[in-house]
What we know:
The longest helix is centred in the N-terminal third of the chain and has 11 residues, at 78-88. The protein has 2 domains: 4-55 and 95-134 and 186-242, Beta Barrel (Elongation Factor Tu (Ef-tu), domain 3), CATH 2.40.30; 137-185, no CATH class. Helices cover 12% and strands 32% of the residues. The chain has helices spanning 41-44, 63-68, 78-88, 140-144, 239-243; strands at 4-16, 22-30, 33-39, 48-53, 97-102, 114-115, 125-131, 136-138, 183-185, 189-201, 206-210, 220-225. It has 5 helices and 12 strands. By secondary structure, it is mostly beta strands. It is extended and about 80 Å long.
Amino acid sequence: MVTRLLGRKVGMTQIYTEKGQCIPVTVVEAGPCTVLQVKTKENDGYTALQIGFGERLRRNTPRAELGHMIPRAEKQSKEDRKKQVAADSKKLSPPDYVQEIPWDGKEAVKVGDQITCAIFEGWKKIDIVGKSKGRGFMGVVRRWGFHGLNATHGMSDRERAPGSLGRQHSISQGVPPGKRMAGHWGQERVTQKNLDVVKVSKEKHLVFVHGAVPGANGDYVMLKEAHWTAPKPSTVVSKKQKAGVVVKKAH
């Protein structure tokens, strides 16, 4: 079963339900995606699908990628293969966004098949993967929320400084790994989990989800099945609860 689909973030709008409730939604153009390669356990050692979305100019597409999208005939010579690629590449519309998605291998899928957003019908929750907006080089105040140092007692130009960084008086000197410092902010892979599917338009290939989607309008995203579940409540009982002691909070 195919549980993932490539798409493009369109923007945000709002939808009114039958009861008159206004729901803010993000519109995602999901599919149609073309199957470019079918990987099986016999040939590749695992099952997966390579799908493509969007359009790309043929003159900007390498010949190796064009040849990859044209299936090879059995017992075909090199000269025949060159003629086939030269003839079929003129009819192709190469995709701009290509990804490999997991596949259980139970369905009959072949190269050239179209996968649409109809797979999301009946789903209540989905996850959307994308790249966050690039903010450029940022200081610690805006990137991490540092409050800076106090501008008193002779301090000058230290209001937005991060403070001490290294471990100069310890055995392992230097800055510890993962220290929150100034640097590039954004342009990272982000997964927005557990978004509500409000509406699916198969004719226009649109999916309306309740919530924010990472990235700017026009960025490519991946939609997939949500597996998030709510955490179970803690079953640990404290000693005071076992003894039946009621703790009163001070007002």
